[in-house]
Amino acid sequence: MAFTPSVPGPISADPPGTPTGLLLTQSWLDLAFLHWAADPADVAPLLPTGTVPDTLHGRTYIGLVSFRMHRVGWFRLPGIPYLGTFPETNVRLYSVDTHGRRGVVFRSLDASRLIPVAVARAAFRLPYLWSRMSVERTGDTFTYTSRRRWPGPRGASSRIELRVGGRLEEPSELEHFLTARWGMHSTFFGQQMYLPNAHPRWALHHADLVECTEDLVTAAGLPAPAGDPVSVLYSPGVPVSFGRPARPGGIPTP
């Protein structure tokens, strides 16, 4: 059933507060943010019940985000150095719910560790996929590669190469809209779920896209991106904490 969401909360570069009941800690490092504008009508059917596309000046966005997940830890335990550390690439959309909470919706999450992928899929119903991945740095250039192994579509891949420039001293409204996200919308055993997070303000950098060859977006059920991304950003990363949702929800990512 269609609904009209509450007035969305403000776009804020800082978290609205500290999540209650610490659930997870982790760090996101060496992030590449690529975004294409999209028609909200094209992505609305792909969002969980109880959410609609979050928009800025009438447009929503499809994100392709590659990074290094570092030392995922449960509760207040130390982060796991091997199983909790791996490259990841996700395809994400932007959402707002009946309470006006802005969030992200993940259409796919490729990761290079099989055990975390299997746990996230089986226990938490998150769309993780096992892939062969790497993140390499040469000077100011980062290269992110991914090729899917399981469950499929097998062979779906991406290769992103970007050259990092200077830091953005005052990110634009769009840059905050795309990166300052303080929760994830999902469905857990048929119930709507919102998982809050908090982290320091992003250090965002200009980036020049050298190469982007990918079919992860279409493999996630979205229209193929038209033309070059409208936004290309890099961040060295942030430490992140997650509070407990109304229902448990698995391993979140940026």
TrEMBL record:
Pfam families in alphabetical order:
DUF2071
Q: Per its UniProt record, what SUPFAM superfamilies does this chain match? A: Acetoacetate decarboxylase-like
For this entry, the protein name equals DUF2071 domain-containing protein
Species of provenance: Streptomyces camponoticapitis
